[in-house]
Design goal:
alpha/beta, 5-stranded parallel beta sheet, 2 helices, 3-stranded antiparallel beta sheet, globular, single chain
């Protein structure tokens, strides 16, 4: 049985968004496209999974270890989730156009976080 083949995507900030660009490249053991958007798989998370071959995962219904997450897709306009994943060095995509704020703002850096992301901000990187 051969190892699963993954592809890379580049994700840029959308209108009024901030951060990035991020390159998402799932790897064996770290291939979860972690959707933490109030239940179900967000269309942005599904698009990332479809293009990369990563595994879509509903982070509201169950939990996974931070080191299994290729990217966390969130819908936080405030201060809670927006900083949790960057603090754990997990690449984070916010569908809202947020900027670093709140008690964890120092962890929200351009190399870990991008916001204002819709499906049109995700592009496959051809090798």
């Amino acid at each position: 049985m051969s190892e699963k083949q993954y592809k890379k995507v580049r994700i840029v900030a959308g209108g009024r968004g901030w951060g990035g660009p991020l390159v998402i490249e799932p790897k064996p053991g770290r291939d979860l496209i972690y959707s933490v958007t109030g239940g179900g798989i967000h269309p942005v998370a599904q698009r990332i999974a479809d293009l990369t071959g990563g595994t879509p995962f509903d982070g509201f219904r169950s939990k996974a270890d931070f080191d299994e997450i290729a990217v966390a897709v969130i819908d936080c306009g405030g201060t809670a989730r927006v900083g949790v994943y960057p603090m754990k060095k997990v690449l984070t995509v916010d569908v809202y156009a947020t900027k670093p704020s709140g008690p964890l703002f120092r962890f929200i850096t351009e190399d870990l976080f991008v916001s204002g992301v819709g499906e049109e901000q995700i592009e496959l990187i051809e090798e």
